[in-house]
């Protein structure tokens, strides 16, 4: 499947406020993931575990319509930065056996 985006000269631009809010959300996620990693048993933390814990929390600033799922890539990057030894599960890293996203 392909998509073509056209941006006309008078199209709205990305606001600095939106960029700042996105950065603040990423910082909140990084702090919370760090807390989860530090309070969990070694070997217990993986992407599925982090997503499971976070899905039950009210996280301010998640994108409307996408929520936590839309931040999955960011969460995965943060997790690998904090725990370089974690590997994505085959089932959770891309798609499950049914070809559907796990999150």
Automatic annotation (TrEMBL):
Q: Which Pfam families match?
A: PP2C_C
- Single GO molecular function: manganese ion binding
Its name, as the record gives it, is Protein phosphatase 1A-like isoform X4
Q: Which gene encodes it?
A: LOC109487976
Give the record's family classification: Belongs to the PP2C family.
Where would I find the Protein serine/threonine phosphatase 2C C-terminal domain in this sequence?
2-79
Q: Does the keyword Plastid apply?
A: no
> Mind telling me which GO cellular component terms the entry cites?
cytosol; membrane
Q: Main site of residence? A: cytoplasm
What is the required cofactor set for this protein?
Answer: Mn(2+)
- Which reaction is the catalytic activity of this chain? O-phospho-L-seryl-[protein] + H2O = L-seryl-[protein] + phosphate
Map out region (Disordered) in residue numbers: 82-103
Q: Entry's InterPro entries?
A: PP2C_C, PP2C_C_sf
Organism, per UniProt?
Answer: Branchiostoma belcheri
Lipid bilayer topology = Lipid-anchor
Domain of life, per lineage? Eukaryota
Spell out the subcellular localization from the entry: Cytoplasm, Cytosol; Membrane
Keyword vocabulary terms for this entry: Cytoplasm, Hydrolase, Lipoprotein, Magnesium, Manganese, Membrane, Metal-binding, Myristate, Phosphoprotein
